[in-house]
Amino acid sequence: MTKSVFLIGPMGAGKSTIGRLLSQELRFEFHDSDKVIEQRCGADIPWIFEKEGEQGFREREEQVIDELTQLSGIVLATGGGAVMREQNRMHLGSRGTVVYLCTSVDQQLARTARDRNRPLLQTEDPEAVLRNLFATRDPLYRSVADIIIETDQRNPRWVVQELKKRLKG
After folding, report:
1. What is the pLDDT of residue 2?
2. Is 0.85 surpassed by the pTM of this model?
3. Which domains does the chain show, CATH number per domain?
């Protein structure tokens, strides 16, 4: 069995939901890098983006991912942009099993439509933003992933059972 599982993928792919369920199944501790950042800052991510910009947020994220990936026996849900930094990809790829939860832009739009906690989507055309993010990030997700699993139209519990099978394999 693997020492830790790190979930990567775009916003709305189900990383937090699937991560919580998977951690229960594996009896691992669950961590969400975005939640850890918010707890440490005492502020939500939109506020951090507003005050420090994306760069400031990414620096905080890199530090948290470095710390969390050194823990053993955890399931970690990362933010959608975590793979943008080479340091994060290196830590994720070398310290555990990386699972890319892949989902379509249509599914992302459906899942994030009413979520005000997504600073990158507070725009006139969130679909264009998601398509651009996908084009940039998909190759990075794939480059670091040990397992790739589609989450579109799939129940999170099904995804967890499928992941358990693949993690044992």
Report:
1. 58
2. yes
3. 5-159 (3.40.50.300)
